[in-house]
Amino acid sequence: MSAALSQPALSRPGAPLRPFPHPTHPTQPTAARPDEMAHLHAGAWFAGLSEPLRHAIVERSRMRQVAAGTTLARRGDRAYDWVGVARGAIRLSTALRDGRCFTLDFVGPGQWYGDIALFDEKPQDLDVVAHAPTTLLLLPKPELRWLNQEFEELRDAFMQLNCQRLRHMFRRFEDLHTLPLGERLARQLLRLAQQFGKATTEGTAIDLVVSQGDLAALVGCSRQRANRAWRQLDRLGIVQLNGNRITVLDETQLRAVAEGRIELEGMRD
User: Fold this and answer.
1) Rounded to 5 degrees, what angle do the CA atoms 118, 83, 173 make?
2) Cα(252)–Cα(256) distance, rounded to whole angstroms?
3) Is 242 strand, coil or helix?
């Protein structure tokens, strides 16, 4: 994964802040497919915005398709764009001293990232890398500032969005320090299934390549311990791992593990 950090950055310097009577990027380098736009509009936060605001955001943005491993931003970079995901996923990570990547979270279809660094004008806190072939909606900082001035609801919506992120961070922090590994892993798998799940005849396939190293980082344990917990879930017929592809076979049982009603052996920290 760390090789992805050597890819060229996608962002480019923004224009000075000023009112924009018309979009600054009326010609998009890549047009989004209807299914990609459907994924974007299906995101709960974005779907809650008014239709005129959603239209203005899309109209003033540009679409880009990027390959897996493309670096969108490095830790310490200046922020230029607000990023929406229409297809694929971006990985939020930090580089360790030995060159490996430590995955903190994924941003999937219908979700947005990058507004905090645009508003507080401080450097990026994390490395942002395309985890899969990904279609992005990129809104430059001056356009976001203009929309924020023109649409009062956007300011309120950003407050709600960042409240959601803060609550999510608190829940994960609490899980990390209070729950046994089995429950943490089950909860993370449920989150991934909600973000990237696709219904199949076998269950819910997580449409994202996730390594055991990624899972271990997300739940705060070694790869070896994550593998032991994973093998127990597999033996119980709750999940199935085919290469790096995960299928949740029994969501009810997985939720029981997440809630502590089914306890995996040897998973107490």
Assistant:
1) 80
2) 6
3) strand
- Of 263, 238, 258, 256, give the one whose Cα is nearest residue 248: 238
Q: Let me know how long the chain is.
A: 269
* Model pTM above 0.85: no
CA angle 1, 83, 152 (to 5 degrees): 155
Q: 211 and 134 share a domain?
A: no
75-86: average pLDDT: 94
Q: Which residue, 228, 223, 201, is CA-closest to 212?
A: 223
Strand pairing class (197-199; 101-107): unpaired
Asked, for residue 100, whether it belongs to a domain, the answer is: yes
Tens of pLDDT, residue by residue over 218-269, are 998 988 999 999 999 999 999 998 877 899 999 999 999 999 999 988 766 6
Burial class, 158, CB count within 10 angstroms (exposed 0-12 / middle 13-18 / buried 19+): middle
Domain boundary at 127, 150, 171, which?
171
Which residues lie below 8 Å from residue 155, measured CB to CB, with a gap of 6+? 148
Residue 103 in contact with residue 218, Cβ under 8 Å? yes
Nearest of 128, 46, 51 to residue 88 by alpha carbon:
128
> How far apart, in whole angstroms, are the C-alpha atoms of residue 213 and residue 145?
38
Regarding whether 153 and 69 lie in a shared domain, the answer is: yes
Residue pair 250/208 in contact (Cβ under 8 Å)? The answer is: no
Q: Do 86 and 201 fall within a single domain?
A: no
